[in-house]
Amino acid sequence: MQKNKSIVLGITGGIAAYKAAELVRLLVKANIDVQVAMTEAACQFITPVTMQALSGKPVFKGMWDASIANGMPHIELSRAADAIVIAPASADFIAKLVHGRADDLLSTLCLARDCPLLVAPAMNKQMWDNPATQRNIAQLNTDGITMLGPDSGEQACGEIGLGRMLEPEDLFNLIQAHFQPKVLAGKKMLVTAGATLEMIDPVRAITNLSSGKMGYAIAQAAFEMGADVTLVSGASTLKPPLGVKLISATSADLMYFSVMQNIAAQDIFISVAAVADYSPVETSSQKIKKSKSSLTIELKPNKDILAEVASLPNPPFCVGFAAETENLLEYAEAKRKSKKLPLIVANLMRDSMGQDENSVTLLDDKGTHTLPRLPKQSVAELLLQHIAGMI
After folding, report:
1. Are 280 and 200 a contacting pair, CB within 8 Å?
2. Left (φ > 0), alpha (ψ -120 to 50) or beta: where does 90 sit?
């Protein structure tokens, strides 16, 4: 997310107001300037003191705040903002937005703004499902207001359904996506990620140490840049990125099938998954019992997914990954040329496997482009910017 962005965070009355505290912490940590404005009802759920401590700024609540020199906080607070985010947005406040009500500071701010408005609904499932609320949401969409959620799950009232506010981390990622330049808008992308499991018996498998972090970071960054993303994931404990279609494929065969079934409509294919090169010829249906004798497992080569996609009559823009333990650039370039790839990403295994940071070199027809060691999300953004430039 770009530094020095400025956000007005509006908090309305609802139990989800407690989540706004964590959202402010995440935004401030990302060097985002946050100005909090609260409704009177919001102050019944979380105190302005808490929000002031987290944002580092006084919290505004009323229209007649004397600290604003010209007496017009509804004008002054929004003019420096890159966006106004309402989280949580109650059913009542959403109705105010639809009808242009301006009877308190926050609603007046929204009416007088000249910046984007993002709204994170939070309410009981019956309130969300009510036809009046659905009409209001449809109108906000028509008016160009961005909806963030809601989520489905257990609610404070004890019921389960759609209407609860997204978690702070999810909201932060969606706000981040809003500010990201949409250099991949209109592009369809398929990304593979994670390790595959080649079963020996019901409890044992051949696999590797890939965490899936790099592939998931690429899928997240691609969505933020406007792409329509499908993520085919092997074994991974990571939370799926928001806005991304997830297909689970735990074995090399399943990943091959999933990729080939979805590749026709794709503009870009990024093969990040650590697909096993070999799998057992036979898989035991029962657990193989331990004995004093040695055990021999015959292995057969798995299909090369990237090579097959790149050799299609009309292939998408194909990007491969080469994780090596030695001779990095030599092996990576040989792989790129043998598979006829426009771009390959090379990294040493010790620099990336399971870690949150990565150091990579991009190899294309113009030569090598070494990126600094950065968090994988940042590496993903730089990689996708490079791809956008190439295509």
Report:
1. yes
2. beta
Beta partners for residue 321, in sequence order: 345
Q: Tell me what the pLDDT averaged over the chain comes to.
A: 90
Instruction: Note down the domain range covering 149.
Output: 6-179
Q: What is the DSSP string of 111-124?
A: HT--S-EEEEE---
pLDDT for position 80: 81
Catalytic residues: 157
Q: Are 161 and 151 in contact (CB under 8 A)?
A: no
Q: Which of 148, 176, 168, 243 is nearest to 381 (CA)?
A: 176
Q: How far is CA 49 from the centre of its chain?
A: 31
The tens digit of pLDDT for each residue in 2-37 reads 457 899 999 999 999 999 999 999 999 988 999 999
170 and 206 share a domain?
A: no
Q: Which of 124, 152, 179 lies at the terminal end of a domain, its last residue?
A: 179
Total domains, the chain: 2
| CB proximity list for 16: less than 8 A, separation 6 or greater | 87, 88, 122, 156, 164, 165
The pLDDT value recorded for residue 1 is: 44
pLDDT of 304 above 90: yes
